[in-house]
Amino acid sequence: MKQRKLISQMHPVLYFLAVWLRRTKRKLEWSFGGKTYAKIINTESFAFRVKKHQSVLLRKLGQNNEELQINKVANLKIAVRNLNGIIIKPGETFSFCKLVGKPTKKKGYLMGMELSFGQARAGIGGGICQISNMIHWMVLHSPLTITEKSNHSFDPFPDEGRVLPFGSGAAIFYNYIDFQFENNTNKTFQIFLKVTDKFLEGELPVDEELEHSYHIFEKDHQFLKKGEAFYRKNEIWRDSILKQNGNVIKTELLKKNFARVTYKPKEYVIITDN
Q: How far is CA 8 from CA 3, 12, 18, 61, in A?
């Protein structure tokens, strides 16, 4: 099925106008939206760990993108400086785009891989969504409330080296595709990030022990073929577990995912219209 083009895709001027309007709207929201945004950084960690995770820096993604992968690592290092040690107090909102800012050449960002208009292509600052993906995964293991999160509209590469469920990432595009969460608890959280030789490492500490732990799992994962197009679907669920006795006190559906796939899966189910 051929997708209808958005008005902003019909002419470069319309595209840049649409981006400018969305970015202006977001800046007004930041200034006058009534939210208190996290901005204090402290390199001294809290005593209690909620979640720790690491993700591989260099993965084989399609063909001939080694330079973009190496550039991505440089981009990650720049973005991490604005996020490492950030404190999220009760009542505060974490905004990825507000903290990281706009990736530009002047700031040292390089051409990395980004997903845009149904393609994987080079763009300034490309690849820093690996950080938003990691933070989102850690936040899912906490009582923090995700208020804004977008998925990529398509799945561009096979699962070589992927360890998290499909659809558990958080797309970002400065500044109107943002990843935000609120701290509606009475505890203070913190985010630590580090780029090592092989991994992006993340940790989510808190100032007091939590009563619950969380387990994220996937259900109903399938590749589908309809006509000549491939799609992928799944569900992401979460168990809330009482630490005192290990009992699951709540199981909830977090997200149903359905996206176009731009490669041919090894196994798939053919679907037809009835």
A: 14, 7, 6, 28
Residue 79 burial (C-beta neighbours within 10 Å; 0-12, 13-18, 19+): buried
- Give the Cα separation of 2 and 166 in Å (integer): 24
Nearest partner of 231 among 254, 273, 265, judged by Cα: 265
Rounded distance between C-alpha atoms, residue 206 and residue 191, angstroms:
9
For the segment 178-206, what is each residue's pLDDT rounded down to a tens digit?
999 999 999 999 999 999 999 999 999 99
Phi, psi of 51 (to 5 degrees): -155, 145
Q: Could you tell me the pTM of the whole model?
A: 0.92
Sign of CA dihedral 114, 116, 122, 126: negative
> Tokens 């993906």, residue?
133
